[in-house]
């Protein structure tokens, strides 16, 4: 049996206390690729993603190196910066790791994770570059595109939005869209009511309270906490039964403190709840009645929104990027606000607070639509289609030109007829007798050594035959 090719997947981060959307996507992708590859996950340090990977039987290697952050926000001299990066000791360590492991394919996750791609191409190892964010459009975006194009054999994007800056380049001919799915470890439906009651009790919510949640692993300006707070404060007086739950760990302390100050100086402090990021996010989504995702940038996708829809909790968001793309795909265009507008976001939230029954029905409809479009089965089918495409275009990656797709389904054994079974039994019994007799004869017979120069003897025997044939033809 042909051994599966080795795929090394490089994560650009590995947080110790929590796991980001990009890490979740990579881990799920890694699990989905295991039927086709021997997967090795490379992380810059030990963290949640490495812990979860090992729990799932995935081999992990730790190797730190520098990121090319400016590929996301391009500037003049980006290419020189990339070239210099490959002369650092950490980049040389990545090259040595690849030489030692000898993978058939390297996959690098996120656009800023350029070192594994450049190192692999130096060693003539094929590269799949997985893009999860939308590169900033400016005068130097072409430089980022050139680097991704030069150091990749194939590009995966998690949405159509991700490919918008890359349009018009060679990348479109070697790319595929692989939309994400939710985390397989999220709580099952039979647990939701218990989780909802438990968490709401812990944070002081009664059944009459309508909870609007904001959740982000790390809070900084791009995640839009400020417009969320501004819109929430404008609703507090009209809807005293509303509660606004902020979950996450601040990265930009100045920005976070400004948001907290606005709440503290208002008359509605009691309507806000603050919680550090929850490792068990299932509890948060179950406890919420509505989730707000006010991202200030064009997200590549929107995992927070998708996870919320898995639990039947509807989402309001700013209408831009992959987040808008996903919301429209599940029929929630009416819950998209003007990007950056706190007042428009507040009006969408107000409609949901005023009509809790209709909001719940919207959540149920969205859940069904999300399951069909982004559920585990849909993701599996998209992944298999991509593998077929890669096998067709790059058969040498998979060992042989006639490489075939391994499916998850087991092959059924053909039903044998009675006649065939009897023939096989007879054959087995006769072969067993022959073996037995062979053993007896071997005990009595000496094994003759092979003659030396057997090849020469064969040639000498063949020569006269050929010469005789020639004489016959001439006569």
Describe the structure.
Residues 400-416 and 439-475 have low confidence and may be disordered. The protein is built from 18 helices and 13 strands. The chain has two domains: 6-181 and 377-398, Glycogen Phosphorylase B (Rossmann fold, 3-Layer(aba) Sandwich), CATH 3.40.50.2000; 192-374, Rossmann fold, CATH 3.40.50.2000. The chain has 475 residues and is of the alpha/beta class. The protein has helices spanning 21-33, 48-55, 78-85, 89-101, 114-122, 141-150, 160-163, 192-202, 225-236, 253-264, 281-287, 303-310, 321-329, 342-354, 356-374, 376-393, 418-444, 454-474, and strands at residues 6-10, 38-43, 59-62, 105-109, 127-131, 154-157, 175-177, 210-219, 242-250, 272-275, 290-293, 315-318, 336-337. The longest helix has 27 residues, at 418-444. It starts with 5 loop residues before the first strand and ends with a helix. The radius of gyration is 31 Å and the shape is globular. The strands form two sheets. A seven-stranded parallel sheet has the order 3-2-1-4-5-6-7. The chain has a six-stranded parallel sheet with strand order 10-9-8-11-12-13, sandwiched between helices.
Write a concise keyword list for the protein shown above:
glycosyltransferase, alpha/beta, seven-stranded parallel β-sheet, single chain, 13 strands, globular, Glycosyltransferase_grp1, six-stranded parallel β-sheet, Rossmann fold, 475 residues, 2 domains
Short description:
The protein is an alpha/beta fold. The protein has 18 helices and 13 strands.
